[in-house]
Amino acid sequence: MTDDALLKQLEESTKDFSRHQAETLRSILQHQRGVRYLQRHLPGAGDHNFLIDAATFRLSVPLSCYDDYADYINQLADGDKCTSDDDHDHRHLLSVDPLVCFFYSSGTSSMKPKLIPYFDSTLSKGASHIAHQGSAAVLRKFFPPRPEVNKRLAFIYADSITTTKGGFKVMAASSFPLHSSSNPNRSLFMSLSSPMEVILGSNVEHQMYCHLLCGLRNSDSIDAIHVPYAIGLIKAMWVLESKWKQLCDDIEKGILCSVINDVRMRDSVVQVLGGPQPDLSNRIRLIFEKKDWGGILSKLWPNVRYIRSVMTGSMKQYYSKLKYYAGEVPLVGGDYFASECCVAINLDIKQPPDLTRFVMLPTAAYFEFLPFDLAENNVVGEETVDVCGVEVGKVYEVVVTTYRGFYRYRLGDVVRVVGFYNSSPLLEFVMRAPKTSNEIVTEGDLMAAMENFQLVLRNTMGMAIEIVEFTSSVDFGSSPKRLKIFIEVKDCDMILQDKLQESNLRKCCSDLEDSLGSIYKVQRNKGEISPLSLSVLKCGSFDRLLKLAIENGTPASQYKPPKIIRNPSIVDVLKENVIVTI
């Protein structure tokens, strides 16, 4: 299908959202009518003449979260087909389609990712095809291919694959095409500046270094820079800042530094280097020696046309820094695709995060909207509305019924309906939904407060202080409970002179507490919360969290630093790295 045909199909699908949604739900229920999960709530669902309308479906099947599927998913992972030994009809647990593998969720608050079953569903493939191929067509519309400059510097990692007790592979959704030799998308990876051996490596730090090295070797041929999440490019830039001399030496000599010990990766990168390149090395070295990192990406890769990454949600905090590195190169936003299903597509990819809007895809899944009260940081009851009931300006938690085994599933994303594209809701991503009613700050509150805090910190301390990363946790062991914020700054030695000038830091901490949002302020004024605790961490502390997450199964390509930590063991790791606490 041509790009014009794909874009036309996308356009047409948005013109009758309600009809497409009704057809999508009918298709899902008709196809999955025999699954155990549905039959628990819809007696007679296994009948071939089974028909049900959307209203009855919403009335009969309760809202669900991951815990409602955990037992079934564990049984699938273990290789079980039914829920009991005496169940001889082998009814499928969540889907009638064959189970192919499991995907890891991208959530990081617990450090243990959830398993999302991936079923071989023809219907789902059709729905996701139009989403993914449509997204690629949108990108090509803005940036038509150039035969002479045709390589992408992509910071992607295939991640390690684990196997369940039942013999099913577990991987990141983004890694699936990389591990599937028959996948038609595999040809897309031929345009990457890095060889597959780098992408398939097992050490993220070494892979990142090799991505940069291969990208620099092909500096004139790089058309675009791709990274799944904005944090991935920020980390790559930190490597570039600290390792640029070694990178230049490797290019000059045409060999790879001895630190990279993966033989296959070494051999493939040496082949890309193609022998000593002293002229290229000198050209790149001169750029670095100027120590001007503003617009560095366009200086190193003069033909790059855009940088693509997800920059909404918790990634929004990195946008200004990416803008600094990118200079005049456009930052292009990603789509709203979840591990469970595609939700919405970004048709205006050049907009900054604050103005990014996503057009919902009516054939990707059946969508419901659970009203959400930002002032209370919680949903309003458990009664959803469909597309006919949404109101512009209102906030909702997204609920999905998918082709791959989730029914009225709370996705955990809070969005605002800002308008309509034809008849499809136009969404603004607001934040991840709170896990419990005990949470006293939202991700949005925390990010806004920390942005202001950095400005106050610089003005008060009289030095250019850069907060590298931050997170928070509520200590329920304190009486009353206490919010703890942990920060890591770029230059620990400089900022820690005189113990961070504690009196100044204490004043900054007070300003931070005053900007933490209405939920926090109300409880603080009532005396239900102890004064804020602020801890400064050793440099590299958040890298330790990344390593810990990867060791526990989180794919490196999907890692997002948690803004609200709910796992006490992760808090303990941070406490071990505290330099000073106010």
Automatic annotation (TrEMBL):
Pfam families: GH3, GH3_C, GH3_M. InterPro entries: GH3, GH3_C, GH3_M. The keyword S-adenosyl-L-methionine does not apply. GO terms for molecular function: acid-amino acid ligase activity. Keywords: Ligase. GO terms for cellular component: cytoplasm. Residues 358-432 form the GH3 middle domain. Residues 446-568 form the GH3 C-terminal domain. Belongs to the IAA-amido conjugating enzyme family. PANTHER family: GH3 DOMAIN-CONTAINING PROTEIN (PTHR31901), INDOLE-3-ACETIC ACID-AMIDO SYNTHETASE GH3.6-RELATED (PTHR31901:SF44). This is Indole-3-acetic acid-amido synthetase GH3.6. It comes from Gossypium tomentosum (Hawaiian cotton).
